[in-house]
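Handout, page 2. Input:
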Amino acid sequence: AGLKEGDDADAKENRETFMQYRASRQKWYTDRVENDRFYHNVQYDDAEKKDIQGRGQQALSINITYAIVKQIISFLTANSPTWYVDPVGDADKERTYLFRKLLDATWYNSRGSRQFSQIAKEVVITGVGYGMVNPNASTAFGCEFKRIPYHNVYIDPYTSEFDYSDADKIIISKLRSKNQAAIFLNKTVEQVEEYAASDETMAMPSDDP
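Output:
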């Protein structure tokens, strides 16, 4: 939501950081969206379609990427990731076994194989894919594994490590309805609408492909 005088300074800093991260990722993000659309048979823009049709031809999409991507994903996800919990001494063996089972259960209950398959698909198509461990008190281990759509992720533009381990911040931004925002912020819908009216980010086009 937008900010009024006296509102939390941290929220203002977060919004400014979001604007900076969004601007810095725009070029590579546009390329990834084009790759995504190409995979989903959106292979011509309006100008290209008009040019092709002006020559008396049809703008037909010939999608040979689907079968290629499907085969690559099957290779990448043929086996689920594995992990090890090693005991320090003999007394830790039973505890180690329990932790292994909890990790297996977390992966299974998170539908980890399905999540991982979707991440791998985005990596093959766009070059990036994201997942995270999300707190969830209702699970046995207190967490779950979740895929994050690439268009919701904004990375510190100054990071240099391949796994973003040196990033100052990683922002996950999602579209929410006014009612959802009101519940999350503990505000009325009218207050959310008032705040949003003064927020420059609300006038920006959605990053969703």
